[in-house]
Amino acid sequence: DTAVSQTPKYLVTQMGNDKSIKCEQNLGHDTMYWYKQDSKKFLKIMFSYNNKELIINETVPNRFSPKSPDKAHLNLHINSLELGDSAVYFCASSQVDRGRFVDTQYFGPGTRLTVL
Amino acid sequence: AQSVTQPDIHITVSEGASLELRCNYSYGATPYLFWYVQSPGQGLQLLLKYFSGDTLVQGIKGFEAEFKRSQSSFNLRKPSVHWSDAAEYFCAVSGATNKLIFGTGTLLAVQP
């Protein structure tokens, strides 16, 4: 069973377009994340949602808008795509228990976005 | 500022040889430490983690890591490397915000 899934796996699009990446987790976790991995393999967090509430919002252009319809889904919508948005985007999830605020994050397979 | 340093960008070892990947962190509070592995074209898989307790932690695939607070290090080790271990390895630190901060990764190549 796939724990954290993302669609699509590959996304090739033109500059200026709007696109979405979807993420779903079946682990019953209450917290989900988006990370960006650039061409040098550097991973950086973009957003985090806990029970549909935004709790981490790093310095990300407002062209990027996460949406969480329920705690099992966290989608990433990107407006007016730019060349620099080309990267691999990873979704992750974790369960943040009471009394311990940190737990393991489980990652999806990634979505490779190429902007032409 | 919180940061993770992986000094070795690329390491090559012979199959059957031992392996140590270095990781140093900078974090003001109690760190929660992780090692992830990324095979080509794949997502990140957790190898092991340290939250508290015994400073030597065991992970999957025969990996272990030792937390040394005095050296701000969390080095990953494996006594005998297999060809299938060739991948990119990431060290990461997290705190109360649950935000993972990653190192730049170490690419491991395994020679037959």
Question: How would you describe this structure to a colleague?
Answer:
The complex is a heterodimer of chains A (116) and B (112). In chain A, the strands form two sheets. In chain A, strands 2, 4, 5, 6, 9, 10 and 11 form a seven-stranded mixed beta sheet that branches. By secondary structure, chain A is mainly beta. Chain A is built from no helices and eleven strands. The mean pLDDT of chain A is 91. In chain B, a hairpin with a 5-residue loop joins strand 5 and strand 6. Helices cover 0% and strands 52% of the residues of chain B. The mean pLDDT of chain B is 93. Classes of the chains: A mainly beta (116), B mainly beta (112). Chain A binds chain B through residues 4, 31, 33, 35, 40-45, 48, 55-56, 90, 92, 94, 96, 100-110, and chain B through 32, 34, 36, 38, 42-46, 49, 51, 88, 90, 94-102, 104-105.
Protein traits:
heterodimer, A: 116 residues, mainly beta, 7-stranded mixed β-sheet, 4-stranded antiparallel β-sheet, 0% helix, 54% strand, B: 112 residues, 6-stranded mixed β-sheet
Work out the helicity level of chain B: under 10%
What pattern of helices and strands is seen along the backbone of chain A?
EEEEEEEEEEE
Overall mean confidence score, pLDDT of chain B: 93
Q: Determine the number of helices of chain B (DSSP H or I, runs of at least 4 residues).
A: 0
| Rg of chain B, Å, rounded | 13 Å
Number of strands of chain A: 11
